[in-house]
Structure formats: structure tokens, C-alpha cells
Design goal:
The chain has 1 helix and 8 strands; from the N terminus they run H-E-E-E-E-E-E-E-E. The chain is mostly beta strands. Strand 6 and strand 7 (about 125-130) form a beta hairpin.
């Protein structure tokens, strides 16, 4: 009988301690900024690629799940969207997104990013950049390359 009460009290105490927030932990947040967007022939195939560097700053759990949607809109209105998921213990990092063979038209390009910090909370951020790469060959573009730098 004594063991059963001791186990119950120990379990309830442990449960209560799990519910107490610690002063050292900050409220979860995420901040995303497109630091640059430009074109270059990154894969040396003769067709320009669109390169978008994004900076992430976050606070959350020990391991954070970040999901983002990145969309490139060409001057004609044609859109290319990709979803990327990153699991990380880092709180501050840059991601290089390369839209392979996407610089197809002359005019103003728009890049938008929408990011969500995973977990039990609904924390999001977004950013947008408009820029003007020249030229293109109207070929079908390739996919998206992602590199955490």
C-alpha cells in the first residue's frame, strides 16, 4: 500500500515539474529574411539559374523542425513553388536555394518565402523580394537545390 502511494506522489510531482516553465527558455519564434536574390549559371550548363539566399533565426526546442514554401514568380506570371523541411539544432543559419534553369524571361522576378516553426505552436514568418535578371531561353526549368551554408 505504501509503495503505491509513493509511486503516485512521485508520478504527480514529476508531472507538475514538467508543467513549470523555466526562466532560461525563451518564447519560440522564427525570423526569415531573403538576404539576396540573383541569377548566375551555377551549374555551368549555359542556362541561368536563380539563387536565393535566406537567413533563418529561431528559438524553440532543442531540435527544431522548419517547413518553408518558396515561390518564384516569373515576369509572365508563371510560378514555381517548392516545399522544404529542415530539422536542425542550429538557431541561426543561411540557406541557399537554387532554382535550376529558371531565369527564362526578361523582366521583374518575385521570390516569396513562407516559413513555419514546427511543434505545438503556430509560429510563422515570411519575406518577399522583387529583382530583375536579364534574358533567358524559354526552356523548361529544372528543380530546386537547397544547401544550408
Amino acid at each position: 500500500m505504501y509503495r503505491g502511494k509513493l509511486a503516485s506522489v512521485t508520478f504527480l510531482t514529476a508531472l507538475m515539474l514538467l508543467q513549470i516553465p523555466t526562466a532560461a527558455s525563451a518564447a519560440p519564434f522564427i525570423d526569415v529574411t531573403i538576404t539576396e536574390a540573383f541569377y548566375a549559371d551555377a551549374d555551368s550548363n549555359g542556362v541561368d539559374d536563380v539563387i536565393v539566399n535566406t537567413h533563418f533565426a529561431l528559438e524553440g526546442e532543442i531540435i527544431n523542425a522548419i517547413q518553408y514554401l518558396i515561390t518564384l514568380t516569373l515576369p509572365s506570371g508563371r510560378q514555381f513553388s517548392y516545399v522544404v523541411i529542415i530539422l536542425t539544432t542550429s538557431t541561426d543559419f543561411v540557406v541557399e536555394n537554387t532554382f535550376w534553369d529558371h531565369a527564362l524571361e526578361s523582366g521583374w522576378y518575385t521570390v516569396e518565402i513562407y516559413v513555419k516553426l514546427g511543434g505545438f505552436y503556430n509560429i510563422m514568418d515570411s519575406d518577399q523580394v522583387v529583382f530583375d535578371p536579364p534574358g533567358g531561353d524559354n526552356a523548361d526549368p529544372g528543380g530546386l537545390g537547397v544547401r544550408v551554408v
